Amino acid sequence: MMIKAGEPRTLGVSSTEARLNFDTELQELGGGPRRRLLMVDDEPAFELSFYCGTCPLLFRRLETAREKLSLESMQERLTGTLDDPDDGGVIDAFGTLLPEGEYLPLLLDVEPRLIIPGREGDYFSGEQVTTWGIDQFWGLPEYPHTPYYRTFETAVDADAHLYEFVVPMVPPTWNERARVEEYVALMEQETVPTAVAISTLDVCQPAIDRGDDYFVHWGLTHFLLDGHHKLEAAAATGRPVRLLSLLALDESLADADDRARLPALRAQSRSARATST
């Protein structure tokens, strides 16, 4: 459910001060294409969809992804429900972690479903394979190297579909069991706590039709800054959690028209991709 979309705004600090950055790895002599990266504390944390726009959608956790980015000063405020993106100075507080740029605040209610790669519900071995087929070199689907949450999908049009993911910075197995249980108890009392994420919108379409269902994949990916325990508790109990998404407009693989459509698409009803039989 879409609660509210804010207006695009400039947030963040200089790249030397930000704990989180987007970057491109240095080109090595004779090396392959440069990877698009999400960096945390100057270490590569995730490899993202390649710049070409024809390669498959991707968020792949890397070996140096070990840090969460929650703010102690915001813990009490985020234990409850955020009713407006600007409530309680949350955007400005988390803006101090981010690189300077244009961001679109989106306030959502999500009901997360925990996905283990390669198992039931995995986008990478399911919907993505129907369009791109398996990797031609490895002979396997893409592999994100992390559990993740699926939260929403809807039709963009007959030839495009939006998929939404919430990606923890560290796996749920790293979460503190006692804190997860605390949120389970709160949710059983109808409390809807708030998580915070930096997000990207990547629009990807293969150059060649190799799969069974050729269409454009819109990937709205939320990388958790705060809320690792909350998302696990919500997935375990089948309850909602509120999500404040700060969509990095400058770092998304989507043109201005596509980015402008996102709030209306996210306000649509959930719907699965309709395929011909």
What can you tell me about this protein's structure?
There is one protein chain. The protein has 277 residues and is α+β, with helices and mostly antiparallel strands. It contains 6 helices and 13 strands. Strands 1, 2, 7, 8, 9, 10, 11, 12 and 13 form a 9-stranded mixed sheet that branches. α4 packs across α5. The radius of gyration is 18 Å and the shape is globular. The relative contact order is 0.20.
Write the layout of secondary structure elements.
Blueprint: E1 2-5, E2 9-11, E3 20-24, E4 36-40, E5 43-48, E6 59-61, H1 75-79, H2 90-95, E7 101-110, E8 113-115, H3 127-132, E9 148-157, E10 160-167, H4 177-188, E11 194-204, E12 216-226, H5 228-237, E13 241-248, H6 256-266
Parallel strand pairs: 10-12, 11-13
Antiparallel strand pairs: 1-7, 2-7, 3-4, 4-5, 5-6, 7-13, 8-9, 9-10, 11-12
Task: Record keyword descriptors for this entry.
277 residues, alpha+beta, nine-stranded mixed sheet, four-stranded antiparallel sheet, 18% helix
What's the overall average pLDDT, rounded? 94
Termini Cα gap: 30 Å
Rg over CA atoms, rounded to whole Å, is: 18 Å
C-alpha geometry: globular
Residue share in β-strands: 25-35%
